[in-house]
Amino acid sequence: MIYWEDVELDVPRESSEHYVLSAANIKAFASEWDPFPPHVDEAAAARSPIGQLFAAGVHLLSITIRLSHSIPSEETASIAGRGWENLRFHRPGVAGDTLRVRVTHVERSPASRPERGILVSRFELLNQRDEVVVSFNANVVMLRREPLAA
Q1: Count: domains in the chain
Q2: Which residues, 6+ apart, have CB-to-CB distance to 15 below 8 Å?
Q3: MaoC-like domain: which residues (predicted)?
């Protein structure tokens, strides 16, 4: 079991799986969750500033989370997520992109309860050219191995 104190900082780790965006999976996701015309209609996408069909942001976030679960790891003492910060969509995800995730734990801080700590992790969704497509910091509450003295 990996506790808050055990987490190595500043060591990037990448997903063992990747995800290939296709016109079909972009349209399928967007049809149900974000039917913005350039996500579901290739003619509308061609008229957009991107010039081609591109994935919805929520689709890219879902891919990021899914791929992060393929990073090899021992079981962790995570309790709950506290939220995401600094969410950025750097470039579009388009049909033909092969995506993978890199996660780097960047900061640990004590939590309000002595048996818990906060871990901040940087998530980056990368395409086949190593360009960052999406990035954000995730804050997670974890159990400490040794609670702080009162």
Answers
A1: 1
A2: 67, 68, 70, 71, 100, 101, 102
A3: 12-108
